[in-house]
Inverse folding.
């Protein structure tokens, strides 16, 4: 009896820079390979970011790079087109990979089925009339659109006007065991006074993440605190200037990219996400899984995830954020309650469940049942 050959899947993404989608791919691809799929990765920008270097440590995993700089060059269409027919499925993440792969399929007349994962509830393209129409055209080139939450699905339906069975919702997942087993980082690296409480935010420095609100909340927090900001991005220098103008240099540390995020989360007293919007925040899930209470802005992509577990504050209201943190740091029973409810909520979002749902979807597409 002939053995069915493994499904050959190509994942395409702009790069493996710091970001939720990038981290998710780095966690998911090795597990898909271990489950018996033949999985390869194509990067438009192959710069040696930490997520890429970590992924390269996995054996029997092929990673292609077609550039080392900006992913916005349309020449990538011509580089992608000849590759498509070598795979059973091509799974795409993020813009502009979303566009380049869809156009490559059209010009190559490839029959390979495309999937796209929508990682966020909104983006700048949705604000421009011309790009609304191009988005609607491009999204229709994909056989399946994976949305990471119901909020993301509903927002995308409203934007692209595609309904029906083309969508499948697969929630993000995190490595719960890895996070829970992580050893807390040594706090003496950041503070020299045990009375100081550590607040942490893990996110890129982009307008979406709104570190500004968190920074402005620091003067209103009653207990002495140290704020750790993990990540990099083009707005970092602007945030450093804000910290300087508010005379908070002694209270805020910019850590840049770190590979020990679970350890830092375990060490921190409070985790914060002050974003304007999210898809389904991996940073939030990791914080809750670590046993660090999460305080997040009441916005799409965070409200459903956090409500009833962590604490929500009014969007862009630094005084409300500080009030929520003050109560946590003052009331030990409340702190313990929020910690437990956060950990319980995180149990619903395992990386194993997420990978299993993707494998199920791949099989359905490969067998013509989706």
């Amino acid at each position: 009896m002939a053995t069915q050959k493994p499904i050959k899947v190509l994942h395409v993404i702009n790069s493996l820079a710091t970001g939720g989608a990038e981290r998710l791919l780095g966690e998911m691809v090795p597990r898909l390979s271990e489950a018996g799929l033949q999985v390869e990765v194509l990067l438009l920008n192959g710069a040696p970011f930490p997520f890429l270097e970590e992924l390269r440590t996995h054996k029997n995993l092929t990673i292609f790079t077609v550039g080392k700089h900006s992913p916005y060059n349309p020449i990538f269409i011509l580089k992608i087109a000849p590759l498509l027919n070598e795979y059973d499925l091509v799974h795409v993440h993020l813009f502009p990979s979303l566009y380049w792969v869809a156009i490559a399929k059209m010009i190559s007349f490839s029959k390979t089925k495309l999937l796209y994962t929508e990682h966020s509830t909104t983006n700048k393209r949705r604000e421009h009339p011309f790009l609304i129409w191009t988005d609607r055209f491009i999204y229709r080139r994909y056989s399946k659109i994976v949305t990471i939450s119901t909020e993301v699905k509903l927002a995308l339906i409203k934007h692209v006007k595609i309904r029906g069975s083309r969508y499948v919702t697969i929630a993000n997942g995190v490595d719960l065991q890895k996070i829970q087993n992580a050893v807390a980082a040594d706090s003496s690296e950041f503070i020299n006074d045990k009375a100081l409480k550590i607040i942490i935010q893990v996110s890129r420095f982009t307008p979406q993440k709104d570190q500004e609100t968190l920074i402005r909340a620091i003067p209103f927090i009653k207990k002495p605190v140290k704020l750790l900001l993990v990540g990099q991005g083009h707005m970092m220098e602007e945030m450093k200037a804000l910290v300087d103008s508010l005379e908070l240099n002694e209270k805020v540390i910019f850590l840049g990219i770190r590979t020990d995020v679970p350890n830092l989360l375990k060490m921190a007293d409070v985790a914060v996400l002050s974003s304007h919007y999210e898809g389904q925040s991996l940073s939030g899930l990791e914080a809750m899984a670590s046993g660090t209470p999460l305080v997040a802005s009441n916005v799409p992509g965070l409200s459903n995830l956090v409500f009833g577990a962590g604490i929500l504050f009014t969007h862009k209201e630094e005084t409300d954020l500080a009030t929520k943190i003050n109560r946590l740091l003052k009331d030990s029973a409340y702190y313990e309650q929020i910690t437990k409810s956060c950990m319980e909520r995180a149990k619903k979002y395992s990386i194993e469940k997420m990978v299993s749902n993707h494998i199920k979807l791949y099989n359905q597409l490969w067998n013509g049942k989706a």
Summary: The chain has a mean pLDDT of 95. The chain has two domains: 8-173+350-366, 176-346. The two ends are 26 Å apart (CA to CA). Residues 32 and 359 are 7 Å apart (CA to CA).
